[in-house]
Design brief:
Chain A has 310 residues and is an alpha/beta fold. Helices cover 51% and strands 14% of the residues of chain A. Chain A has twelve helices and ten strands. In chain A, helix 1 links the parallel strand 1 and strand 2. By secondary structure, chain B is of the alpha/beta class. In chain B, the strands form two sheets. Chain B has a four-stranded parallel beta sheet, with helices on both faces. In chain B, strand 7, helix 12 and strand 8 form a beta-alpha-beta unit. The chains are: A alpha/beta (310), B alpha/beta (358).
Chain lengths: 310, 358
């Protein structure tokens, strides 16, 4: 490889991509580094990922591995970050901690190179320093990296605020409103979560995403519902439910089989949040949507019946 | 809870470590300890019945054990904290048990900042407000000594028990030792039990070949140690005539090697970062066994254990690089004894044949 050629970074469209895409794209754009994103999830991606994964792994990981596979050979590096913690009682599922090494071991025959950054605030590695290290391994000057990160972070915050505002408006919408509690990479994935929101919209219901919420507020409110919950994303969702459960007609707990944090947190939510109809929907790798549609339909019927609209 | 209430504390069954918990509660803290009954199929079924469906198996077993402890008269339950889902066990178990209608005091270590020493005293004072601190500290250390002895003797037991020439004396000596630990009241009791078992182990004749089959055991923290949870995997393998080695013990993980700072050095090429609470130790030990020419590895985990599922690809790498057979065992609440036996026999036959050929 010539010294001057800038590398192309592959971003798998799965897992934390949905949380960090604005930040990642803005950061690499600022540095003038080209990125390539894998296509939307489809049956083939899931099947390829499942073939690579340990059987028991969660659906989200299988999808992720499918996206990594799709990017193999199409870029110089694939970005697989390690995101471990944001502070005390602000951890991520251990899967995000293991992801870089997991991918490295699974794809070690492919010859593909991977790129990572280590975000672990408990070990004194915050986001700024993680991106600093990432940029410098790509051969950019420390100053340029610092500038790029600052700009990217600003873009991300502005964009996220807009998203939150949009969701806040939905709580005032007319008609049936259903809060969907799901990780962003479940609900935004076109192959699994999108089918749920699409069906709800088709049935004349306003789906509202619990995960798009002011994060600091949500973290604070999560303590009301679950004082020792320690997963960052779960806490955001739990906090959002605590903040909004009075403003919606129903809640759908949507998770990918068998999500570790969700297996426990959703049980706790179901036991502690009363007076709101709740549906616990677990998505697996089955291809048909008829089963999900039946359950959603009956859930909507129950809410309408309860509110005397049926 | 009122002031006059007499605390009867319990901790779910966890391998044989309950002897140390009992020692801490009764000798160091002066509160009654209710020992939950040994885990049986009923414990498992009780736990599974009230647990969320796809939570990891130790959650179900400990929940079942807590119910049995409450049935046995406990009015206080203790749950530890942890870095994986274990850190959330306490809150959910407390909720499930109180939804079932049980009334009890629940001490959940996840509510405390366990990084600080002060918190330990706060917890001890909560368990017994009249706690004598100096005595507590001294007796607590004795309990830790008990854990060290227990792990040391257990390790030696599984290295040798498959070669007992007397047909049962080795096992009997080990069981006497365990019983002695459960009934120990003083430092002298612990030391006596340790000396007695050491002496027995030295005098009981063993019929061990010069180069026996050696198998390393790695895996998830609860299932790999708890004989009920892993269906006595170690005893079964040892009885076939295998020397067993397992690094994962409370002594190693928490007492001798708690930070594990230097453990990652030797496996940097396999994993750049720490992959999970027990991942570094397991990967390190698996490679250590492979490098020392062990005949096989067994990886033990409960169904759905996220960190250990993530370790498996690395173990597959080790297996491929060192040509060492790895048996992956996953335990859920359905796992049957016969199924396990079939797999172990096949594994044993395979590593035995390999040893003859290679």
């Amino acid at each position: 490889m010539e010294a001057k050629k800038t590398p192309v970074i592959g971003l798998p469209r799965a897992m934390l991509y949905f949380r960090y895409r604005t930040l990642w794209h803005a950061f690499f754009d600022e540095l003038g580094i080209q990125t390539v994103v894998s296509g939307p999830t489809d049956r083939a991606v899931l099947e390829q990922g499942s073939a690579r994964a340990i059987d028991e792994a969660c659906l989200s990981l299988k999808i992720y591995l499918g996206h990594v596979e799709a990017l193999c050979g199409k870029c110089d590096y694939i970005l697989v970050p390690r995101v471990s913690s944001f502070g005390r009682h602000r951890n991520m599922c251990t899967r995000f901690e293991a992801l870089p090494d997991l991918v490295k071991n699974i794809f070690r025959e492919s010859g593909q190179k991977f790129l990572s950054y280590d975000l672990d605030v408990l070990q004194k590695k915050d986001e700024a320093s993680a991106f600093q290290a990432l940029g410098q391994t790509l051969g950019c000057s420390p100053r340029a990296v610092r500038k790029a990160y600052k700009a990217a972070e600003k873009t991300e915050q502005a964009q996220y605020k807009g998203l939150v505002r949009e969701q806040e408006q939905l709580y005032r919408a007319e008609g049936l409103k259903i809060l969907i509690a799901a990780h962003s990479y479940v609900i935004e994935d076109p192959y699994i979560g999108k089918t749920v929101t699409a069906y709800l919209k088709g049935a004349g219901v306003t789906p509202i995403r619990a995960d798009l919420v002011d994060r600091d507020d949500a973290l604070r409110h999560s303590l009301e519902l679950s004082p020792t919950c320690k997963w960052e994303i779960s806490r955001e969702i739990v906090g959002s439910i605590a903040m909004h459960c009075g403003k919606v007609d129903g809640i759908i707990l949507l998770s990918a089989f068998p999500c570790g944090p969700d297996s426990m947190v959703n049980e706790l939510i179901a036991r502690r949040v009363k007076r709101v109809p709740m549906l616990n929907l677990v998505l697996d790798s089955q291809s048909g949507t008829a089963g999900i549609e039946t359950r959603l339909e009956s859930f909507i019927d129950i809410i309408r019946f309860k509110e005397g609209q049926l | 809870m009122d002031d006059m209430f007499m605390r009867k504390i319990s901790f779910p069954r966890y391998a044989e470590y309950n002897c140390a918990f009992r020692y801490i509660f009764e000798e160091a803290m002066d509160v009654r300890c209710i020992q939950p009954p040994a885990i049986t199929k009923r414990t498992m079924e009780l736990g599974a019945k009230y647990s969320p469906e796809f939570v990891c198996t130790p959650f179900k077993i400990t929940l079942g054990s807590m119910i049995e402890a409450l049935e046995a008269g406990a009015n206080t339950l203790l749950m530890v904290h942890g870095l994986c889902r274990l850190g959330y066990y306490g809150e959910l178990q407390e909720q499930i048990l109180s939804d079932l209608g049980y009334r009890f005091d629940f001490i959940n270590l996840s509510e405390y900042d366990m990084g600080k020493k002060k918190e330990y005293i706060k917890i001890a004072k909560r368990i017994n407000p009249k706690l004598h601190l100096a005595k507590f500290a001294a007796k607590f250390m004795e309990a830790l000594r008990m854990v060290e002895y227990l792990d040391e003797i257990t390790a030696e037991y599984y290295r040798n028990c498959g070669f007992d020439a007397t047909g049962g004396q080795y096992k009997a000596a080990y069981q006497r030792f365990i019983t002695a630990l459960y009934t120990a009241h003083t430092r002298a009791d612990i030391e006596d039990a340790y000396r007695a078992v050491r002496q027995s182990f030295q005098t009981i004749p063993l019929n061990k070949p010069l180069r026996p089959l050696r198998v390393g055991i790695v895996g998830e923290f609860y299932t790999v140690m708890d004989a009920f949870s892993n269906l006595e995997l170690e005893q079964k393998l040892a009885d076939m005539g295998v020397e067993l080695y397992r690094w994962m013990t409370v002594t190693h993980q928490f007492l001798h090697y708690s930070s594990q700072k230097n453990m990652g050095v030797k496996i940097r090429d396999l994993c750049t970062y720490e992959m999970g609470p027990t991942a570094t130790a397991n990967i390190w030990y698996a490679r250590e066994c492979a490098e020392r020419g062990f005949d096989g590895l067994v990886h033990v985990k409960s169904a759905g254990c996220t960190p250990e599922i993530d370790v498996m690809p690395v173990l597959q790498t080790i297996g491929a690089d060192y040509k060492i057979p790895v048996l992956y065992l996953t335990y859920d609440s359905q796992t049957s004894d016969v199924g396990l036996m079939t797999r172990l026999e096949a594994f044993y036959d395979m590593i035995e044949m390999r040893k003859k050929v290679l």
